[in-house]
Target: L-rhamnose isomerase / sugar isomerase
Amino acid sequence: MLVHKAAITAHNETHYAQHAKALAALKDRIADPERVIKLVQEFQVAIPSWALGTGGTRFGRFPGGGEPRSLEEKIEDVALLHRLNQGSGAISLHIPWDIPSNPKAIRELASSHGLRFDAVNSNTFQDQPGQAHSYKFGSLQHLNEQVRRQAIEHNMEVIRHGEALGSQALTVWLSDGSCFPGQLNFRKAFQRTLESLQEIYAALPKDWKMFVEYKAFEPNFYSMTVGDWGQSYLYASKLGPQAYTLVDLGHHLPNANIEQIVSLLLMEGKLAGFHFNDSKYGDDDLTVGSINPYQLFLIFNELVEGMDARGMNHAADLGWMIDASHNVKDPLEDLLQSVEAIRLAYAQALLVDQAALRQAQENNDVAAAQEILQEVYRTDLRPLVAEARLRSGGALRPLDLFREAGVRKALIAQRGYHAHTTGL
Ligand code: RM4
Ligand code: MN
Ligand code: MN
Model:
């Protein structure tokens, strides 16, 4: 481990006085800070195994070195994040990018670092070397029965890998769709996809969930067969009680009201959880909270209100995952920033005065409603989130410590500059 516990203690001692002052001032201003600290401590976000290296675009890739070369090294990277922030206690794997050669050993390694496995992801959007049939014209929607069979069997294999690791959900994201008008019969494509999903659903262990992820466009540019939350919801409700709709924040058309989508999916008991990221234009996969932190807060406001209305456990009842790609930042720094942004938005939402908001809504007091939301949003809650980290044994300032400890330099020395991880 590149950052020892002693280094965290020393770091925290340096920053403690300043932190304690900021925390005390904040505690004076807000209701029940202890509750928020405790809930934030419990709130863990899964790190995507495919985002531990440098991402890229179709134009180029500019790696920064020291990327994890194996699943073991990916787990070490997530363990490092978790040690620093005590908020990244899970990892989400993508198959076949991360097939564990020795599942028992991988499971033990993860749990020795306090990590569990969140949803496993299947991949029928790329052709793998030696694969019998191509996914060029889709996978679960394909006209050819043999292609569909191959894709169905791949999903079943992903479930088996997940079972060996203690995962309890399968995320299916399909790139299926069409690039040009007339290419596809929408209804028949939907029906073939549904039938394929039904076979996969039938193979789900009883305590598993299926997450059906939607995306508006890319790589297909005219239609996507699971293109929006309505379509995902249709599949999920036809599939049955173990199927849910997964929201990836970057998968909407511009300006979509994601918080409203979240509220209604929760109302129907059909929200799977999230792939967090941020975007300005499309599926930009940027650091969570880097472009539109207010939207993130509004989403969490609906989440907290909606989960409480259904008596749900905030930390455990939905899947909380990041799905990002880092083109210019150090991937680990980017992920530290993302987890911080998520926990901050969660803390803010916990402090919304729901009773006052309800009253404002009932009185059509629009100005008051805005004041209530922005009162919390504009309060700097970072000391609360830092306190949650501190109490769990993490660092007061994870990103600073990551830099002070020279983690990236050490990773490059260990793994080499040209180490290249699997993923996007
Ligand atoms: C997709 C989608 C999926 C992710 C792949 C790598 O755009 O967001 O969730 O598994 O990218
Ligand atoms: Mn995603
Ligand atoms: Mn995406």
Summary: The pocket of beta-L-rhamnopyranose (ligand 1) is lined by residues 50, 94, 121, 173, 213, 215, 248, 275, 283, 323, 424 (CB under 6 Å).
